[in-house]
Fold:
Amino acid sequence: MAHSTTLAPPELDDLCINTIRFLAVDMVQKAKSGHPGLPLGSAAMAYALWDRFLKFNPSDPLWPDRDRFVLSAGHGCALLYALLHVTGFDLPLAELERFRQWGSRTPGHPEYGKTPGVEATTGPLGQGFANAVGMAIAEAALAARFNRPGHQIVDHNTYVLASDGDLEEGISSEAGSMAGHLRLGKLIVLYANNHITIEGNTELAFTEDRLARFAAFGWHVQRIEQSNNIDRIAHALLAAQEETARPSLIQVRTHIGFGSPHKQDTAAAHGEPLGVEEVRLTKEKLGWPVEPPFHIPEDALEHFREAGARGSAAQTEWELRLEAYAEEHPDLAAEFQRVLHRQLAKSWDANLPTFTAADGPMATRIASGKTIAALATRLPEMMGGSADLTPSTFTSMDGAGSFEPENWAGRNMHFGIREHAMGATLNGMALHRGLIPYGATFLIFSDYMRPPIRLAAMNGLPVIYVFTHDSIAMGEDGPTHQPVEQLLGLRSIPGMVVIRPADANETVAAWRIAIERREGPVALVLTRQKLPVLDLARFPGIPAGVPLGGYVLADSPPDARPDIILIATGSEVHLALAARDRLASEGVQTRVVSVPSTSIFSTQSDQYRAKVLPPGVPLLAIEAGASLGWKSYVGPQIAVVGVDTFGASAPGPVVMEHYGFTVENVCKKTHDLLRQIKEKP
Ligand SMILES: Cc1ncc(C[n+]2csc(CCOP(=O)(O)OP(=O)(O)O)c2C)c(N)n1
Structure:
């Protein structure tokens, strides 16, 4: 709802709008780098939103029922930093003066966690838009779960400021289609339609009717031709709020570089400072003092701070409502706090399964499905699904219903065949808080969602990915569907934890890590094919070993120095165990080390790693994936049985055999390596 307080007189509005315009211009000019064009053109609509609608509290930027604001066009962040400063967030003017400098809280694109009030890391165009869809999903899901008649404790909007580039990127269509289908009425996008991207006019590459496109997605759409008419913008925002059954897109005809005599409406206003002379001319044209830079008129500041104070009052009012809710629904209120604080329910892991050999061979995707079933009953904040592959990824939660417009209490998501948007909406759900989001697809299609995976890692977001059909062993679908380099690629993302369990029990342990991890995403990499169960009676080290990333699964003879270590992950652990038996009969003593997670193993102490992989003992790494990572990982005395070409279409076991994943080949490689080492002086 629009704030009910008296509106500022038009001159004061203009003063405020110019304040943020020129703060942004001066930031970019001082940094000699950045994007002045979008802030100049979009300041008026951003002001209308922040001044009259947005529910935010600068002194408690994370209060749960605040509205979310995502600047999807992250390159225009000088505008956001200016707004955050003037409305009273903990972002002093000195930080604005250090825009884009080492260690500042005003980095070149908004970074989640670095600047109070920044809700998402944005910059890669389209991501913020889709994050916002995830935030709106989270709001709807939590409202359905926690609100009760007379108690609306979850009730906020998600706003986006998006640019031409955001809407050009395919992800905005994926996410827009999803949001329209889900009827996320509290999602409101302001689209700065300035007709300019880097190469020039959008006529060069972007000519479809955007409003018709979004209308077809099921959105409520509006068009505004006068970018600086804030009453008109406010009117449209009000209409968007009142439309609760559809998400809203407001296309505003803005002018990049507004006010700049030589750069307005040109690509020159996009990605470089205006220049000292042009800054002067622009300030003169808009009636702004040329000196000093970073000028903030008292009246404007006072007015902006009032908006912040209104947010503080809104929070206080919400806290009172929360108290009343807690009185009437104490258990729900406690549960609400628990999920917002990302605490796990007591005994969340009480009914996790343990598998025995009697369960028979089992694909790790199946073991994962059984683990999800156990977790889902204890952790109602788990919410996830797949990109149309649930019957293959085994990721549905029985009895939890589907998240659909008629049923926002449902917890099974149907992302549709939209991996990219799935990844970004999962990020938005995690950013919002209150949920444990997960998403599934085949490992090969993780490529389709790599940008949001990277951002989840960068943002430190607890998102869980379930990637099945994890190697060439998936078989007949052929090289297009057989992942080769994906494991290495995922492992190379800083902050990413990748776990490729070897059997059903390692899978349970992997899920435990995924659920407990708060600092970043976890990818569970699972097989399509059945694998023997590593019985805990025979391999008792599994539950304690998996959390260390790598551990000695089988030693031969116990405590003696092995001739060679077979180091393997996932399904290849079984090959290593089989080869170990053969090698023992050939007089070669082996140790088998299971490394479900190189990411975690590499964080262990030197002592622990040296205990598992004693220096000087030759290593043979076995993994149905690119060998590159292993070569650099374990030193010179190493051979690798890996996959360094694309796969091939045939039944899985046949493909594995042709690619050398056989006991014979592992034994041969072992003997070759040992001979080479002996022959070397
Ligand atoms: C995925 C992605 N591709 C490319 C870029 C580089 N880039 C930054 S801004 C931009 C286009 C700018 O046009 P628009 O989105 O209309 O913003 P405006 O010109 O209004 O500032 C591009 C291509 C990016 N940030 N993200």
Summary: The longest helix spans residues 298-328. The chain has 25 helices and 20 strands.
